[in-house]
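Hi V.,

You were right to ask for the full record rather than a summary. Here it is.
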Amino acid sequence: MNSSTASSRTPEQTRTLIVNAAADLMVEIGPAKLTHRNVAARAGVSVGSTTKYFSSIDDLRAQAIAQAAYTMRVEAESVGRALAEAEDPVATGVDLLDELFRNSAQAAAELALFAAASSYADPHMRELAASWTRWLSDALKPRFGEIQATALAVFLDGAWIYTALRQQPLPREVVATALRALITTEGTQA
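Predicted structure:
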């Protein structure tokens, strides 16, 4: 670690650096393997810095999960707006999801969040994991209505898990077929 770089950071910058490193590691190695030591190494700070800002590994893990959830919220709202505003939501959805699913880091982040939520008895973590579906559904409701918005969000959850587990995107024709079926279901507001 370069001491001149470390001393030029504000406490908030150091804390943010630590949380981002923990979020990245959580995706790579899973939340259970997170330690102050491996986070410090990834962040380029001393172990003392990680324990100064996060006295317990559970606190650091929770902050990393919250950071991952925030990133997912931004992504969910972006996907929802794009689909809701598209003239042809099926074609737009296929292109958009193909691009997103090729980002294996994002797929891995969502899978890590689901794993963390199911591995720990912390209701806050479960709420963060469930938030992706709610955020996406909320963004889709104005165009598609509650039932279709929820169905689309649940499909995307499953598609993201498929992508993360197989490390390859769902085939475009599968995405198109699913979106067409979900969007054109009777009762849609499209």
